[in-house]
Design a protein that fits this description.
binds adenosine-5'-triphosphate, binds magnesium ion, 12 strands, disordered C terminus, 12% strand, 514 residues, alpha/beta
């Protein structure tokens, strides 16, 4: 519609001025805010449509399932057809048509889309600790576990690996304490309990291989349209921490993996973070700082990040300050607190002579927003009251058969569906422990036979018949010896294993810097 813009709707007097989001500045992030039912999801939907049409791949989380409609075309039979066409006419959207978009569905639980996985090592100790709500002391132990695995090139891929590693850490806590500082049994036990919680929340599905390849999120179709990647998040929302941590991980992976591109003509990927308040709710300062840092730096990798939340206040100020493109739907002004938040929200805009920003944010109708886009040289534009364009794709969810068909036809169909379990920490530790135990047992039997022979010799054949039973104290000695043999064998094994770099990422790097 407008050159190098994503068309968003009509502003100015009678909504006649076309409003667009400049592709060039859409990597400078954005915010979609507003009370419930004011039009946030539809705004996200039309932005996804616009980016896709401009050849920009999109990643978004679908919290209520309604964004799956992007995969289907809108229809003249739809109950809001008249409302949509009259809205289109009102804003001069003359080439408004219904169409579907190329969608790839993803699902951490592998039900409503291709399974999306990462490895424990890639997630790193900082994010995992947050995910598992670990205390500082427990986080310290997690760091040690990762460090040992990292130094010794032992792959920690899934939760089984982490479990095995923690057991090993517990067993070797004395040695490890000498090297790294206090490792207490209580802390190790507490982490193990949290690990169980994580398993029950769906962590077993999330961690493992094949891990998500980021290039699969950055595909464009043969017709040049960007793929819209939709993460099913309805079920995921019942584990808000898993949800937030996963998206945060994804963001940090993108940051780590993508090359610098400076300020490209259009973004490489646009990332929508719905229910963004979950990310920041009781997040430790260190984490908020990291998010701020990632947001600031990921821009030059050509990734635009858009937060969607009810109130702009949900987003920490430092991060809010980096969200250059704003779609502020209506905010309520019932309580004194509401009014304060409203006032604060209004203060961040460049005023428009035609109206007071505060009034506009309170008064805008459904599907209307107070907008401000970055313009030339990345300067925020004057605030507008914009009637947002109607969607071209279906409003509301698609049905299960349609979804299944889209999944089956996707370019990554079949690639992620089967989980693979290659040799990693768990298998290494288990097989070594077994071997070592066998070796120790053999040595023990040998020693026992020797000592029996000795005793028998000393006893001068006083006993005929039954052998002397093993004493319990002797048994304990055996256990100890086995333990030591296992530790040694494992350490040897760890040294010998060549593996890829395990801990990376700005969030993983947090621990490495210490
Ligand atoms: N741009 C638009 N064009 C046409 N209709 C719209 C538009 N925006 C919103 N609407 C109408 O308003 C309804 C509510 O919008 P939407 O679902 O986007 O609200 P929301 O802010 O996401 O609400 P919630 O906080 O409950 O998720 C839509 O179902 C649609 O009928
Ligand atoms: Mg919504």
């Amino acid at each position: 519609m407008v050159e190098n813009m994503v068309f968003i709707g009509g502003g100015g007097v009678n909504y006649q001025d076309k409003q667009g989001l400049s592709l060039k500045y859409s990597n400078r992030h954005g915010l979609i805010a507003g009370a419930t039912g004011t039009g946030k999801t539809v705004t996200l939907q039309i932005l996804a449509e616009g980016f896709s049409a401009a050849g920009v791949p999109v990643f978004l989380s679908d919290v209520k399932g309604d964004l799956s409609g992007l995969a289907a075309s809108g229809s003249p039979d739809f109950k809001l057809h008249d409302a949509f066409t009259s809205r289109a006419a009102k804003i001069g959207f003359t080439d408004y048509i219904y169409e579907s978009y190329p969608v790839t569905f993803w699902d951490l639980f592998g039900k409503q889309g291709h399974p999306v996985r990462t490895t424990v090592a890639e997630m790193g100790p900082l994010l995992l600790s947050r995910l598992m709500q670990l205390s500082e002391a427990q986080e310290g132990i997690m760091n040690i576990a990762f460090r040992v695995a990292d130094e010794e090139s032992m792959p920690i891929l899934d939760l089984k690996d982490l479990q095995a590693l923690l057991i090993w850490v517990g067993e070797n806590r004395e040695d490890l304490s000498l090297r790294y500082g206090n490792v207490s049994t209580q802390s190790v036990g507490a982490i193990q309990r949290q690990l169980l919680v994580l398993e029950n929340q769906g962590g077993t599905d999330l961690f493992g291989e094949p891990a998500l390849e980021l290039s699969d999120l950055m595909r464009t179709d043969v017709d040049g349209r960007g793929r819209i990647n939709i993460l099913a998040a309805d079920k995921l929302m019942s584990s808000p921490r898993l949800y937030a941590t996963f998206l945060l991980w994804l963001l940090s992976e993108l940051f780590e993996t993508l090359p610098e591109v400076g300020d490209p003509d259009k973004p490489k990927l646009v990332f929508f973070f719905d229910e963004a308040h979950l990310l920041f709710e009781d997040a430790p300062k260190a984490l908020v700082d990291k998010v701020e840092q990632v947001a600031r730096l990921i821009r030059s990798k050509g990734v635009g990040v858009y937060f969607i939340t009810q109130n702009p206040d949900d987003v920490p100020e430092d991060i809010l300050g980096q969200l250059g493109n704003r779609f502020q739907h209506a905010l309520r002004a019932f309580t004194a607190r509401d009014r304060k938040a409203l006032k604060r929200a209004a203060e961040t805009y460049r005023p428009n002579d035609r109206f007071e920003t505060v009034d506009a944010i309170r008064d805008v109708g459904v599907g209307e927003a107070v907008t401000s886009m970055l313009e030339k040289k990345g300067v925020p534009g004057i605030v507008e009251r914009t009637l947002i364009r109607p969607p071209s794709s279906q409003l509301g969810p698609i049905d299960a058969p349609t979804r299944a068909a889209v999944i089956a036809a996707s370019p990554v169909a079949g690639h992620y569906e089967k989980k693979i379990d290659r040799r990693s920490a768990y298998e290494i530790l288990a097989s070594r422990a077994e071997k070592a135990a066998r070796a120790a047992e053999e040595a023990e039997t040998h020693a026992e036979q020797q000592s029996t022979a000795e005793r028998e010799f000393n006893a001068g054949r006083r006993y005929s018949g039954s052998r002397v039973g093993r004493s319990t104290s002797k048994r304990a000695g055996t256990g100890e010896r086995i333990g030591k043999a296992v530790t040694e064998a494992v350490i040897k094994e760890l040294r010998g294993t060549t593996g890829r770099r395990l801990v990376r990422g700005i969030l993983g790097g947090f621990f490495k810097g210490r």
